[in-house]
Design brief:
The structure holds 2 protein chains of 2 kinds. Chain A is mainly alpha-helical. Helix content of chain A is about 75%, strand content about 0%. Chain A is globular. In chain B, about 75% of the residues lie in helices and about 0% in strands. Chain B is built from 15 helices and 2 strands. In chain B, strand 1 and strand 2 form a beta hairpin. In chain B, helix 5 crosses helix 12 and helix 5 packs across helix 14. The longest helix of chain B has about 45 residues. The radius of gyration of chain B is 26 Å and the shape is flat. The chains are: A mainly alpha, B mainly alpha. Chains A and B meet through helix 1, helix 3, helix 4, helix 5 and helix 6 of A and helix 1, helix 2, helix 3, helix 5 and helix 6 of B.
């Protein structure tokens, strides 16, 4: 074989492999979605949304788990959003060249990927042990801790995309620094900030590891945040590993519900980012 | 940027009414301190996590000493615990994930930067990134009900019949095909870390100067040669950073692994056998741990996991951070 044919053959082989790698990745995504639809759709009935988790063999749904997930995610969002946005603001607006900012940025990037089960252990140690029982509050706090780094990262990125000329114009009009940030910079970057919050919601909504030792689970309908609280991920964990076919069916239904919600949030967040005035 | 820091000084010169001036400046200080306070809070959080885990695990380390790290016994009945099987499982599953995931991720990055038609780049890139959005519990359910039975009847018997007979590495592929086990966990982890590594790698590939790339093409290089001789050498640090980031994720991944690992606290040579990881032990046993030593040993496992992932992630972020600093200069 002459050298040109050989090089062309090598090129063809490597390019085919890269195509194959991409096809593999996409195929796994579609296989997962397909299994979820096939196994989960039959579980979605009226009872699924209106009844609480049943004993094996009884009719029931996941209403208590859906409610618990919703409430804990909302609390985590309410707590995590201001903390994340203010920290991100410090990094983007006030920290030029400071060592503190470098360290915070570094630590935040580590927290972003830190194992979420360790966060669960941490909240168990500082909240559950002190309070003496598992609770919805401690679950929400664990989720908030996972929420913050995501918002910090996107907030900093989005604020640095806002052109300096906007800030300079506001300063030239005599606005103090905090007004420049709150009334001009935030407003210019609002889609970006919302994108970060949505991505963080999507991240925590599916987290189960940090809830195992904090919110635990609750078989019954409960709105008491001081008591153990049902939530979709932990119910899926328990029901999927159970030997009962009806529990497994509910687990598939829950899995489908949570995946569709999270994928929708993700896609919506991306659209939002692309509408942003200063997107890349 | 200087205009911003000198802003208030400029306003003073113009001469604003002193009282409202002072109020505005107070607002500035309060806002600045507020954001700084939360930034310090994020910093303290990391310290607090380490302190809480360390204090929770003192009992275990006091009872078993450093032998906790090297002991293979995990016996809740006799209240004797050792971390080695869990550490071993964590490392082995993560290594399998890297072996399978890194080539796939590099392939995807090459496809997205060199081969894919421009209009398709964004949609395909987004689809790959959506793999990262799927919650880990979903990977677990899917692995348990779909992937494990499939592997049990197809890949695993094939591996046992072929590689199982090869000397030396044959020991890795012995025993009955359980379906569940370290190989299955590693394969799921590979899919889960894929999007992170692919995204970082694609981004560093895109920073290769067009001139270098075009010069190589101009000399008649094929796409594969451009990738090997220009793109990869130029983005070496970034690739290593991305791989470390993926490794950090794989080490700490919990729910997906818990479903398919089989929870067995014994070290077995075969990759097809059930094992356990640090995170899976925590998820399975923590709420059922009855004695203080048991609980404390599990928290000690958590501390070990946290320290390992911190080191890996710190290296990853350091590499990626140095890279972006160089780019900015």
């Amino acid at each position: 074989m002459n050298i040109y044919a050989h090089r062309r053959a090598v090129n063809f082989a490597i390019m085919s492999l890269s195509l194959l790698a991409t096809a593999t990745g996409l195929m796994v995504l579609f296989l997962i979605l397909w299994s979820l639809l096939r196994q989960g759709l039959p579980a979605l009935s009226l009872a699924f949304f209106t009844q609480s988790t049943p004993a094996p063999g009884n009719v029931g749904g996941l209403m208590n788990a859906i409610y618990g997930s919703l409430v804990m995610t909302v609390v985590a969002t309410l707590v995590g959003t201001p903390i994340g946005i203010l920290t991100g603001t410090y990094l983007a607006e006030f920290s030029r060249g400071s060592h503190l900012a470098k360290v915070v940025r570094f630590i935040n990037d580590i927290l972003l990927s830190a194992p979420s089960i360790v966060i669960g252990l941490f909240v168990y140690e500082v909240m559950v042990v002190r309070m003496g029982h598992f609770s919805g509050w401690s679950g929400a706090v664990a989720l908030a801790i996972i929420f913050v780094p995501v918002v910090v990262r996107t907030t900093e990125n989005m604020l640095t995309l806002v052109p300096a000329s906007l800030r300079e114009a506001a300063v030239a009009l005599g606005a103090p620094r905090w007004k420049v940030i709150v009334l001009v910079v935030y407003r210019a970057a609002v889609q970006g900030l919302l994108t970060g919050v949505l991505l963080a919601v999507a991240r925590v909504a599916g987290e189960s590891a940090p809830l195992l030792f904090t919110a635990l689970n609750n078989q019954f309908w409960s709105t008491d945040m001081n008591a153990p609280m049902a939530n979709l991920p932990v119910v899926i964990f328990q029901f999927a590993l159970s030997p009962y076919a009806d529990w497994q069916l509910l687990a598939w239904g829950g899995a489908l519900l949570i995946t569709l919600t999270i994928l929708a949030l993700n896609i919506f967040a991306r659209l939002m980012a692309s509408w942003s005035t200063f997107s890349k | 940027m200087d205009a911003r820091s000198h802003g208030s000084a400029a306003v003073t010169a113009v001469g604003l009414a002193p009282r409202s001036m002072r109020r505005q400046r107070l607002g500035d200080i309060v806002f600045r301190r507020l954001t700084q306070g939360f930034a310090i809070g994020v910093l303290l959080l990391l310290g607090a996590v380490i302190v809480a885990l360390a204090s929770g695990s003192t009992l275990a380390f006091r009872t078993f000493g450093l032998g906790f790290l090297t002991s293979e016994t995990w016996n809740p009945v006799k209240d004797t615990f050792g971390a080695l099987p869990a550490i071993y499982g964590t490392v082995v599953t993560s290594l399998i994930a890297m072996l399978l995931g890194v080539p796939l991720a590099l392939g995807i990055a090459v496809f997205l930067t060199e081969l894919c038609p421009r209009p398709l780049r964004r949609p395909i890139g987004v689809l790959v990134e959506l793999l990262a959005a799927i919650p880990s519990i979903i990977y677990g359910v899917w692995g348990l009900f779909v992937l494990a039975p499939l592997l049990q009847t197809t890949l695993q018997p094939a591996l046992i019949d072929t590689l199982g007979n090869v000397p030396v590495i044959g020991a890795l592929f012995q025993g009955p095909p359980y379906g569940l086990g370290m190989l299955t966990a590693g394969m799921i982890l590979a899919v889960m870390v894929l999007p992170f590594i692919a995204a970082v790698t694609r981004d560093v590939f895109l920073t290769v100067p067009a001139m270098l790339r075009e010069s190589a093409y101009g000399m008649g290089a094929t796409t594969a040669e451009v990738v090997r001789a220009i793109v990869v050498p130029h983005s070496r640090i970034g690739i290593v950073g991305g791989v470390m980031l993926g490794l950090g994720r794989a080490l700490g991944e919990t729910m997906a692994v818990t479903f398919v690992i089989g929870n067995n606290h014994h070290i077995t040579a075969s990759l097809l056998a059930p094992g356990t990881t640090i995170s899976a032990s925590l998820a399975n046993e923590f709420t059922e741990a009855v004695s203080d030593t048991y609980t404390s040993s599990l928290i000690a496992l958590g501390l070990i996991l946290f320290v390992i992932t911190l080191i890996v992630l710190a290296c990853a972020n350091f590499l990626l951070w140095r890279l972006s600093a160089k780019e900015g200069a």
